[in-house]
């Protein structure tokens, strides 16, 4: 086994309240990364998973940013990337999913597939990310197992293969049957948790036995090839809160989930076995440590064995930087990484030299693709409460746009800067972080624009367009021209009138 074959880099995707935070915590507990499970129903500090550190997350009990948690179990190194679970999908979520090789999709047994789950699934499908499904909360009243399985199959156009089956649900829940081994994990104690009791020779209720026979005959058998191609999802039933099905999930990731996958680049596919060290920045996070104004770039290592102190060249900079203090993460806890293998995520402290989408490599001859900016769905003008803090605001907006929290546009005419986001919650994050981290108080006002498009074309075509549309032109933080549109009709109209220009809804970094 080569050194990177024992890496599993995965994310958990779900709708809010499906149980992702609880499952994350229990996976870390099973993996030995933490030793005490928090009380998810408690208030205050105990309510928050270890990966929720930002002030707004602590106040609202939700995950807004993506964190990385690394743990080892039975010779496998697991890199778990936590994705935001709130309703407002953000670019940070998308970029996190570009850095994983597989995902666990958590579904509430009472609610089935919800809009956010579907949105995140579609992002995974874009990159053929294989998915293991975990139907959670079976110890409570829920929908029929067949209904849930059929919904996954129909709504997501996936083959489904049951790997376990609940023995009753809700008030008559008596455990989880492993369809491969024939063992039943039983609830114990007054809280009816799984404490390790597994029965081999069990007589199942006739109704449950019939259900399982029907499930095994009616759905496709598990195929590793189909799963890794993103065409089939193995389905596990369980309860993260009561610890049912958690160990089976870790085992499934270890056994079935792919090791580090090749990554697309402008120079063709880059295999993890390539000797040269390459990687890409999928996230930048400032001020993780409130005691220090730090700035960490998260790099997914694609190929080669990284050694501490190595010189790597970022594609956006063009000159090499020495990586002296690379970090391995467990949420807020961190340690210096002496080495890292393909699939690993390392944090690189820097002062603005690294940006989302940058490729890092030894020879600067590779550029990874597929980490675009998206056209914002919400645009707002930024109004300072104290006009003397213009300089601090500019610095804050540049920092936060580098992180991917927002996009910032500087109009060619007019002094009020415009911020763009993909989801409403990102605006709350913006205001909260401006105040907490930059001591800048600001308000957001409606902008006269509905969306934005990046302009591409010859200098002559751009100049002609600018002469007639100065009021609708802005520059992004890279200085690239952007058309600020008042409506979708506006975009179509300008496209027809300016066939020599491309009006793009995405921008590759």
TrEMBL record:
Function of the molecule: Increases the formation of ribosomal termination complexes and stimulates activities of RF-1 and RF-2. It binds guanine nucleotides and has strong preference for UGA stop codons. It may interact directly with the ribosome. The stimulation of RF-1 and RF-2 is significantly reduced by GTP and GDP, but not by GMP.
Family, per entry: Belongs to the TRAFAC class translation factor GTPase superfamily. Classic translation factor GTPase family. PrfC subfamily.
Pfam families linked: EF-G_D2 (PF22042), GTP_EFTU (PF00009), RF3_C (PF16658)
Claim: Repeat is one of the keywords in the record: no
Molecular function (Gene Ontology), one example: GTPase activity
TM annotation in the entry: none
An annotated GO cellular component: cytosol
Originating organism: Novosphingobium chloroacetimidivorans
GO process terms (BP): regulation of translational termination
Name of this chain's protein: Peptide chain release factor 3
Residue positions binding GTP: 14-21, 82-86, 136-139
Chief subcellular location: cytoplasm
Superkingdom field: Bacteria
InterPro entries in alphabetical order: EF-G-like_DII, EFG_III/V, G_TR_CS, P-loop_NTPase, PrfC, RF3_C, RF3_dom_3_sf, RF3_GTP-bd
Residue ranges of domain Tr-type G in the record: 5-261
Keywords assigned: Cytoplasm, GTP-binding, Nucleotide-binding, Protein biosynthesis
Intracellular or extracellular location(s): Cytoplasm
